Every structure is written in structure tokens, then in C-alpha cells.
Amino acid sequence: MKIQLALDLLDRNQALDVVRAAGPYVDIIEVGTSLLKLCGIRIAEDIRAICPDKPLFLDMKIIDGPEREATLMSKCQPENYSMLAVASDTAVKKYCLSRKPTTQKWCLICNRFPTRCNARKNLRH
């Protein structure tokens, strides 16, 4: 079982205080839509500074403007994001084609980036 911290808050400082207090004890940190709208994607950088080893889920609810959204996502490189199910197939394809791949991949064995991985050396990432 994995524990996800959902930051569905409307106050940047309160959200960062919650990350400082609970971040070390969760498996993934979700940045809620309202917090993203309030703070912009800069909040992702702030959270990474506090918990650099935790994957981020940005609840962006992408539906249109996929190229623009992919550009924003490439700046903060979340491991996960949300796209609305009602988005057109074209929007999904455009997003996937325009998204810049991250150079880091998440290690599913130890739940960290490979540079901070605790997995046995003989296992591949």
C-alpha cells in the first residue's frame, strides 16, 4: 500500500508546512488543482526543495492546450499528472508528442530517483 499526501489547500505557506511535517512519511505528494492555480507551478519546485526524493502528482486536469501544458510540465517534471477523461484523443496525442521526456526515471524498487536509489546494485532501473 502507498500513502499519498493530497495538498488540497488554498494557502501556500500552510501547504509547505504540511509537506515539511508529513512529506517524509508518505510515498507520493499530490499538488491539488486549487493550489496550482493559486501558486503556479513554482509550488512544485518549493515542494521538491523540501522532499527531493518524493514523486509529485500535479492534479492539473489537462483538457485543452496540450502543447502549452506540456511546456509548463517540462519545467517542473512531475512523475504523474492528471488529464481529464473527456479530453479529445487529439489533445491526448498532442500532449504526449510535445512533452519533453525527463532524463530521470523513478525506481519502482526503492521508490526514489536512481541517483538516490537504495536498491541492490545488481537490479536494473
CATH class: Alpha Beta
Walk across the major sheet and give the strand order: 1-2-3-4
| Gyration radius, in Å | 15 Å
Strand segment tally: 4
CATH arch. level architecture? Alpha-Beta Barrel
Number of domain units? 1
- Any idea what the CATH superfamily is called? Aldolase class I
Low-confidence stretches: 106-125
Question: Strand portion, in percent?
Answer: 15-25%
Query: Helical element count?
Result: 5
Describe the sheet with the most strands. Answer: 4 strands, parallel
* Helix content, binned percent: 25-40%
Question: Which structural class fits the helix and strand makeup?
Answer: alpha/beta
Q: What coarse outline follows from CA principal-axis ratios?
A: elongated
**What is the residue-averaged pLDDT?**
76
SSE string: EHEHHEHEH
Cα-to-Cα separation, first versus last residue: 21 Å
At the third CATH level, what is the topology name?
A: TIM Barrel
Question: What can you tell me about this protein's structure?
Answer:
With 125 residues, the protein is an alpha/beta fold. Helices cover 38% and strands 15% of the residues. The protein contains 5 helices and 4 strands. A 4-stranded parallel β-sheet has the order 1-2-3-4. Helix 4 links the parallel strand 3 and strand 4. The C terminus is likely disordered.
